[in-house]
């Protein structure tokens, strides 16, 4: 058990420093209270003023993001963002990072990351309909990384599978830089009847504060603080800050909450997930948002461990808990409803007038603070920023790869774990439960139908940290553009994004520069594509022993496909179909998978990127899809045209015969804004009239081989064998 | 004529089954809560859907079998009425003793979700009469504990009585004798790991599963 210090001992021994509160911040707390904070109060401020809860280092940057639009019903600030999709329906989504817990205890870290993001979605009144993830690990050459991958996948799978929410897509990449700091981001998408929209607010004096769900233990105490500090070699001691998940309890809790919201909304004032910083953040935010005070009696908090102190009860991040504000008089009805789901519902306090946030424990008041000081008055820092040395001192030239044997290079590329088939991961997730999944890996974005309508949703998660490492500004633009490209290639119109900003310490000027430039680039792209940022989170301090990860802003995007005829997949459809490439290819290889494969890292100035051109290309593709001219479409990404063509063939069992006027090197260039499309031969005239000179015919679908002829060399491989080795490569490397 | 879908805490393929029966097969499904002690009066068939009843704690299906509704399900089955358990439903039926054998962890120890080719080994049942004998069909699987096990005497018994209804073409989980689905000797209780309800609409990737529901519905209609 923790030893409770007195207010003066806290001051004299500077306990607050250990909890991440600076000297200045401690002084601010003293000023807000007009006295020294006691032990519990110091803990409350430490959690609420952590980067994880208060965004104190990232707020000035996040403010640039566009967050509104005619389609946006709810932007950042609630459990999740909401986008109107017509007919009184809305799509609700958010992503969250769980990097630190996953590094320390991958199974529970990943599982509870999924559990937390699901609660955010149903707290808004939506039924979760899909999960996605974005994972970045170290190279698969050591046992620990293999263990991290295996257990992370198991954790994600076990939680989503048990909840009955399909995991429909995602991305997984491998790079040495993530060896000690894996990135685990999970996104959840829900469907909402607009009449059911909820808010996390606790209004109305005398209304009851209800604690529902699992009991509170000592797991995850200080999790938010833990997520806001760097790792050192002592990280093993932080294992106790990782929470433990129980998806069965959450399934029951979700069904109870959704029944309450959908059938008995008259009982309810507000509802919020107890996520990061548990009871303190949910209750204080609900009170502050509504402009009321709150009193909680901590003796009433359901506890599964003995002798827990207020500090522990407030900061525990035990999972599968929600906080409700229930209208006076409906308490018995709410308790009966939760009892039906064998889920606990306990009144622990009530809404009060004014601005005081008060806690009592064993008859004694243990905290009495102005709620706005906790929630809204965390300091905001404008950190110094400095261009990283590796960018300012880089040689201004593009990588000149050596390709001695093109076929061998091509085959080696297909074996790279980032490129190889991800079945070894994906097949461990239930991707089909709810029977709405139309496409997972057959399309650039996953496609999920909205039952009872003609509409489907396209969804994707994207980040290419290598590009951001070389150029965070253009890399940030590319992250959003790539997500939009995936939605558009699938036949959708992008609606909005959520993000997880995974970066190094903001107190390091070079890392802060990356965050600043990446968010600037993302902002410009989001404005151009009209995809506001409706939710997200920030995960800073992703570094070990002063080595930060690559800047990794994960973009989760959802798009709407209004007409089922527009759903477009990547697989070659018919022998004889014509293959075209849209977009320009150059011999700029910096940041590419080929450079990474040959050098072991990326370096140099990033290839050229033009956001306006990207948008024009995407608009062209949308026109072609809406004109129903295309049999398939696939965007070009890691591994360039060579890998893109192979993926279309692997998805279909049909080969191709392609002749390009590119060089062998250019086959692997990763210029953005490019697509491969196929059309039936009888549509050639009308297609070419529509694209004018913006698409180049490069070959035909058919046969059992992948043949790609360049100016200086030829790839000619057997489809079946090549596919088998691409399919098996990751499973083999994971063993 | 009501098709009763039993719902346990943690069932999560309950709605999938409901929608297939209502929207694809045009019959009347009804959910039955695990705390009920009887089935709706007009029940013609019981369907136990997939999911993670009681979180698969202890063993998959091990707790669900003690639910109040299970006495009514057993009585219904003993009277010769049709009962289907899919995935977790199959696990519950073996735990409840309505079908022989047990479902263990997949031999990879991993959850597996993917389409799987199956061979129809017995088309003389009320659930499979629309299929051809030895027909290959594609149903998805999605389970962590789908590795069917029984001892050699039981296996011989299953073979002798033509109780093996579905076999995997490429065994994904280590199941004894490639077993994917079995029926009781009376021919009215079917358990299977693959999901026909996920293979009943072309837009979701295939319609082979519809034939199973069609077989059952035809059998019910002809009985009247």
Computed Rg of chain B: 16 Å
Gross morphology of chain A? globular
Largest sheet geometry of chain A: 7 strands, mixed
Mean of residue pLDDT values of chain A: 95
Write the layout of secondary structure elements.
The complex is a heterodimer of chains A (735) and B (224).
Chain A: H1 7-13, H2 15-18, H3 23-33, H4 39-48, H5 51-54, H6 59-62, E1 72-74, E2 81-86, E3 89-97, H7 99-104, H8 106-122, E4 127-137, H9 143-163, E5 167-174, E6 183-193, E7 208-213, H10 223-226, H11 247-263, E8 268-273, H12 278-290, E9 293-297, H13 310-315, E10 321-326, H14 331-340, E11 345-352, E12 356-361, E13 364-370, H15 371-376, H16 389-392, H17 406-415, H18 423-426, E14 437-439, E15 446-449, E16 456-462, H19 465-470, H20 472-489, E17 493-502, H21 509-529, E18 533-539, E19 543-544, E20 547-548, E21 552-561, E22 578-582, H22 593-599, H23 611-626, E23 632-635, H24 640-650, E24 656-659, E25 675-679, H25 684-691, E26 695-701, E27 705-709, E28 714-718, H26 719-734
Helix pairs in contact in A: 8-9, 8-11, 9-11, 11-14, 20-21, 20-23
Chain B: E1 2-7, H1 14-24, E2 28-33, E3 43-48, H2 69-78, E4 83-86, H3 88-95, E5 102-104, E6 112-120, E7 136-143, E8 147-149, H4 152-160, E9 164-168, E10 179-183, E11 189-192, H5 208-223
Report what the structure shows.
The complex is a heterodimer of chains A (735) and B (224). With 735 residues, chain A is α+β, with helices and mostly antiparallel strands. In chain A, the strands form five sheets. In chain A, strands 8-10-7-11-9-12-13 form a seven-stranded mixed beta sheet. Helix content of chain A is 36%, strand content 23%. The model of chain A has no long low-confidence stretch (mean pLDDT 95). With 224 residues, chain B is of the alpha/beta class. Chain B has one domain (2-223): 3-Layer(aba) Sandwich (Rossmann fold), CATH 3.40.50. The A-B interface holds A 154, 157-158, 161-164, 246-249, 251-252, 341-342, 423, 427-438, 449, 451, 564 and B 9-10, 12-13, 15-16, 19-20, 50-52, 54-57, 110-114, 140, 142, 144, 195, 197-198, 201, 203-204. Chain A: One of its GO terms (cellular component) is cytoplasm. Chain A: Keywords: ATP-binding, Cytoplasm, Ligase, Magnesium, Metal-binding, Nucleotide-binding, Purine biosynthesis. Chain A: Belongs to the FGAMS family. Chain A: It is found in: Cytoplasm.
């Amino acid at each position: 058990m923790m030893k409770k210090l007195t207010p003066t001992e806290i001051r004299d021994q500077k306990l607050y420093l250990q909890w991440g509160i600076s000297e200045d911040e401690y002084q601010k707390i003293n000023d807000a209270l007009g006295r020294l904070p006691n032990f519990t109060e110091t803990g409350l401020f430490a959690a609420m003023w952590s980067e994880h809860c208060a965004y104190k280092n990232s707020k000035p940057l996040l403010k640039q993001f566009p967050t509104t639009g005619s389609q946006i019903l709810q932007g950042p600030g609630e459990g999740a963002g909401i986008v109107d999709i017509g007919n009184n329906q809305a799509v609700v989504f958010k992503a969250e990072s769980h990097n630190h817990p996953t590094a320390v205890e991958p199974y529970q870290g990943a599982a509870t990351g999924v559990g937390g993001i699901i609660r955010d979605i149903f707290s808004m009144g939506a039924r979760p309909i899909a999960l996605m993830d974005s994972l970045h690990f170290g190279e698969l050459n050591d046992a620990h990384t293999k263990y991290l991958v295996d257990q992370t996948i198991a954790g994600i799978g076990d939680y989503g599978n048990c909840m009955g929410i399909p995991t429909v897509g995602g991305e997984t990449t491998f790079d040495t830089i993530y060896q000690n700091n894996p990135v685990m981001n999970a996104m959840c998408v829900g469907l909402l009847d607009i009449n059911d929209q909820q808010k996390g607010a606790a209004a109305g004096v005398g209304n009851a504060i209800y604690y529902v769900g699992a009991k509170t233990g000592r797991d995850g105490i200080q999790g938010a603080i833990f997520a806001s500090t760097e790792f050192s070699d002592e990280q093993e001691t932080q294992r106790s800050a990782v929470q433990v998940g129980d998806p069965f309890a959450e399934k029951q809790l979700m069904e109870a909450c959704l029944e309450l919201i959908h059938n008995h909304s008259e009982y309810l004032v507000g509802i919020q997930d107890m996520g990061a910083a548990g009871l303190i953040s949910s209750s204080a935010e609900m009170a502050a948002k509504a402009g009321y005070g709150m009193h909680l009696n901590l003796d009433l908090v359901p506890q599964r461990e003995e002798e827990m102190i207020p500090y522990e009860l407030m900061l525990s991040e035990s999972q599968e808990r929600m906080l409700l504000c229930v209208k006076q008089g409906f308490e018995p009805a709410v308790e009966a409803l939760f009892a039906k789901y064998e889920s606990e519902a306990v009144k622990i306090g009530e809404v009060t007038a004014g601005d005081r946030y008060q806690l009592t424990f064993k008859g004694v008041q243990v905290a009495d603070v102005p709620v706005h000081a906790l929630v809204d008055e965390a300091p905001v820092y404008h950190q110094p920023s400095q261009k990283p040395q590796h960018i300012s001192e880089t040689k201004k030239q593009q990588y000149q790869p050596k390709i001695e044997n093109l076929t061998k290079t091509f085959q080696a590329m297909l074996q790279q774990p980032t490129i190889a088939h991800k079945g070894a991961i994906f097949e461990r997730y239930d991707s089909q439960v709810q029977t709405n999944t139309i496409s997972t890996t057959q399309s650039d974005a996953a496609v999920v139908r909205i039952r009872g309508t003609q509409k489907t949703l396209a969804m994707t998660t994207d980040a290419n940290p290598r590009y951001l490492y070389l150029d965070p500004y253009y890399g940030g633009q590319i992250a959003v553009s790539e997500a939009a490209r995936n939605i558009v290639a699938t036949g959708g119109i992008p609606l909005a994004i959520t993000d997880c900003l995974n970066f190094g310490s903001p107190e390091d000027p070079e890392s802060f520069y990356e965050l600043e430039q990446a968010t600037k680039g993302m902002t410009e792209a989001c404005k151009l594509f009209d995809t506001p940022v409706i939710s997200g989170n920030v995960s800073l301090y992703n570094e070990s022993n002063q080595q930060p990860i690559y800047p990794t802003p994960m973009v989760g995007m959802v798009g709407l496909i209004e007409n089922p005829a527009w759903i477009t997949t990547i697989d070659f459809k018919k022998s004889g179909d014509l293959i075209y490439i849209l977009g320009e290819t150059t011999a700029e290889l910096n940041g590419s998978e080929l450079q990474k494969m040959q050098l072991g890292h990326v370096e140099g100035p990033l290839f050229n990127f033009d956001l306006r051109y990207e948008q024009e290309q995407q608009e062209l593709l949308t026109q072609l899809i809406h004109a129903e001219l295309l049999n398939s479409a696939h965007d070009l990404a890691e591994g360039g045209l060579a890998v893109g063509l192979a993926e279309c063939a692997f998805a279909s069992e049909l080969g191709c015969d392609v002749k390009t006027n590119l060089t062998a090197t250019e086959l692997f260039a990763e210029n953005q804004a490019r697509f491969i499309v196929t059309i039936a031969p009888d549509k050639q005239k009308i297609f070419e009239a529509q694209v004018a000179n913006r698409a180049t015919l490069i070959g035909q679908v058919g046969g059992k081989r992948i043949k790609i002829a360049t100016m200086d060399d030829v790839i000619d491989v057997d489809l079946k064998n090549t596919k088998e080795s691409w399919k098996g490569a990751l499973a083999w490397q994971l063993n | 004529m009501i098709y009763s879908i039993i719902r346990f805490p943690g069932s999560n393929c309950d709605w999938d089954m409901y929608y297939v029966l209502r929207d694809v097969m045009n019959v009347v499904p009804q959910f039955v809560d695990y705390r009920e002690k009887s089935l709706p009066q007009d029940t013609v068939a019981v369907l136990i859907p997939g999911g993670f009843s009681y979180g698969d704690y202890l063993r998959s299906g091990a707790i669900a079998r003690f639910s109040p509704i299970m006495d009514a399900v057993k009585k219904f089955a003993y009277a010769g009425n049709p009962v289907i358990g899919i995935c977790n439903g199959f696990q519950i039926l073996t735990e409840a003793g309505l079908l022989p054998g047990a479902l263990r962890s997949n031999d990879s120890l991993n959850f597996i979700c993917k389409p799987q080719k199956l061979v129809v080994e017995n088309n003389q049942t009320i659930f499979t009469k629309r299929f051809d004998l030895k027909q290959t069909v594609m149903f998805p699987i999605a389970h962590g504990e789908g590795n069917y096990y029984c001892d050699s005497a039981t296996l011989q018994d299953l073979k002798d009585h033509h109780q093996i209804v579905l076999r995997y073409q490429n065994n994904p989980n280590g199941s004894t004798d490639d077993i994917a689905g079995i029926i009781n000797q009376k021919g009215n209780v079917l358990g299977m790991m693959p999901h026909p309800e996920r293979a009943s609409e072309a837009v979701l990737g295939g319609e082979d599963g519809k034939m199973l529901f069609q077989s059952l519905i035809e059998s019910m209609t002809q009985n009247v």
